Amino acid sequence: MHVMFVASEATPYSKTGGLADVCSALPKALSQLGCKVSIVTPLYKCAREYFTHSNERLESMYGVTLEAVVGRETKRAGVQRTKLSGSEVDVYFIEHDDYFNRDGIYNNQGVDYSDNCERYSFFSRSALELIRVLNLDVDVINANDWQTGLVPVYLDSIYKTRSRFEYDSIFGGAGRPRYDASVRQGANPFDRIKTVITIHNLRHQGRFWRGAMDLTGLDWSLFTYDKMEFYGQLNMLKSGLVFSDAITTVSPKYAQEIQTEECGERLQGVLQTRSQDLRGILNGIDVDEWNPATDKAIAANYTSETFPIGKPKCKAALQREMGLPEDPNVPLFGVVSRFDPQKGLDLVAEVTPELVEREGAQLVVLGSGERSLADHFASLARRYPRNVAVRNYFSPDLSHRIEAGIDVFLMPSRYEPCGLNQMYSLRYGSLPLVHNVGGLYDSVTNASDENIQNGTANGFVFYWCNADDMMKAIRWALHCYRDRRDDWTKMIRRAMTEDLSWKQSATKYLELYTELVDRK
Ligand code: ADP
Ligand code: GLC
After folding, report:
1. Relative to the alpha carbon of 338, which ligand is closest?
2. Multiple choice CATH, 307-500, 3.30.930.10, 3.40.50.2000, 3.90.870.30, 3.40.50.300
């Protein structure tokens, strides 16, 4: 089984959020289950920089050129490749400097690039060209989010419809295919490929002016309400949902939520129609990268046995690093997040005065994104310099130190397809306090008396997304922290021993791929 991931981000080469973590950790886990796996991703400036600063090697595939039609032009891309560190996963980078060698991935200082439709149509098409030119034996393509929504459309409406002969004569230029004639004589190698699209976030759909259809090189006959059209616009995610053989999303709860009017982002109809082919599979985490026992970024390593010794050292180091008074007894809350309305951080800002003035707690925030939220947190840090510390940038190392050093991780997301940070928190024994949605619902069990008794509690949950309800949950967490130390310790142990690895989820993806491949 050869599975190809087509993804607009993949750690460690590029990342704006959890999509990147998933698009390298899941391939790695599938490869450990015996699949052949490859990843196709753009060669962004940050990816080049990664190779300049690491000992990993980027190998240029000289002589391989991909061609893709964009509007009236044929554009060419180069290909570079590497192995995903510590794995057998092949990573192919699509190299096109005009499109990808830019400072930001999707935007420049918060403003989306105006040619994103063009960039990701080109990228999607290039992934299929890569299969053709390198004659890759792919069984399943797993596309991810709107950026790769056109992959199933191109496959279905261009690549599968041509005979091999037609194909070579049309596309045969730059990188001629090297088909293995004995295996595939006359066959169209794309015929057997099945497609899955994974929804990481339904809100971002890649909606563009209808005229952008011309850029995609796809036929206007596809611009209908049951295919690519969406309220007069071109919708790249919807296109992927319609044309894929199967759809997955990143938690079982979110799979239900997105079929409702409340959370369906106006695509609930499409998703309901395809509900037989839609599966919610909870993300895992990379338990090697996020391992408090071996993590080099944190002040002291610890396990589910030794956390009473290691975690206080991490807490003290974090307080020092963030310029807060070093005090083992003061409850320390933390946030690591994109600053985006999705994340409900306005609620954190709203409860901060009470958290500080009445409860004497500390809060550390690491985040980047929306300016107004960054300003709001900055003003809270100025108002409470002994209690609140804020860092407004992207720093994976600091995010590890926060996960290790805090007592409670705050994640009041309005919606959350899966969420990784609550799982990183569990792994580091920092109890998550979450709103009851999506993947947060699926991964955090509230510290009710009953759940504490029966040993399932691993965090705190609130049910209505407002500051009052969140504050109630915080007060309960503080009561447990201060007055029920044995229960607190028990919950940390429970959290740290949860199986959060990708193994179970990767097995579910593999089952799905196998079903699709076996399907006639
Ligand atoms: P989303 O993908 O919606 O942002 P997730 O919880 O799935 O939410 O994943 C977020 C990922 O991005 C995590 O790996 C988190 O550690 C990381 N992250 C977010 N903001 C920052 C930041 N400012 N610095 C470092 N890592 C961050
Ligand atoms: C998205 C979602 C987040 C999820 C991540 C990885 O960015 O917002 O909930 O964990 O993708 O699937």
Report:
1. 1
2. 3.40.50.2000
Give the tokens for residue 29. 């886990």
Whether a cis peptide bond, with omega within 30° of 0, leads into 432 is: no
Distance 200 CA to ligand 2 centre (A): 5
Task: Give how far the C-alpha of residue 342 lies from the chain's centroid of Cα atoms, to the nearest Å.
Answer: 14
Same fold, 2-284+503-518 and 307-500: yes
> Following DSSP, what letter does each residue of 129-186 receive, concatenated?
HHHHHHT---SEEEEETGGGTHHHHHIIIIITTS-HHHHHHHH-SSS-----HHHHTT
Taking the C-alpha atoms of residue 232 and residue 208, their distance in angstroms, rounded to an integer, is 9
Q: What is the pLDDT of residues 31-57, one digit of tens each?
A: 999 999 999 999 999 999 999 999 999
Relative to the CA of 396, which ligand 1 atom is closest? 25
127-166, pLDDT tens digit by residue?
999 999 999 999 999 999 999 999 999 999 999 986 554 5
Q: By C-alpha distance, which of 312, 325, 324, 362 is closest to 492?
A: 312
> The pTM is what?
0.94
* Candidates 3.40.50.300, 3.40.50.2000, 1.10.132.30, 3.40.50.170; CATH matching 2-284+503-518: 3.40.50.2000
- Minimum-distance ligand 2 atom for the alpha carbon of 283: 12
Ligand that lies nearest to the alpha carbon of residue 250, given by its number in the listed order: 2
In one-letter notation, the amino acid at residue 209 is W
CA of 481 to the centre of ligand 2 (A): 29
Q: Verify whether ligand 2 is closer than 6 Å to residue 22 (CB atom).
A: yes
Six-digit token pair at 349?
Answer: 């800002």
**pLDDT tens-digit profile of 110-131?**
899 999 999 999 999 999 999 9
Q: What pLDDT, in 10s, does the model give residues 356-407?
A: 999 999 999 999 999 999 999 999 999 999 999 999 999 999 999 999 999 9
Residues contacting residue 212 through CB under 8 Å, at least 6 positions apart: 117, 118, 234
Domain map of the chain by residue range?
2-284+503-518, 307-500
How remote is the CA of residue 514 from the centroid of ligand 1, in Å? 31
Q: What is the CB neighbour count within 10 angstroms for residue 496?
A: 22
Q: Whose CA is nearest to atom 4 of ligand 1?
A: 17
> Can you read off the two tokens belonging to residue 21?
């973590």
| Residues having CB within 6 Å of any atom of ligand 1 | 17-19, 21, 336-338, 366-368, 394-396, 399, 418-421
> What's the 337 CA to ligand 1 centre distance in angstroms?
5
Q: Which helix (H) or strand (E) holds 480?
A: helix 467-483
Ligand minimally distant from the alpha carbon of residue 201 = 2
Helix (H) or strand (E) holding 382: helix 371-383
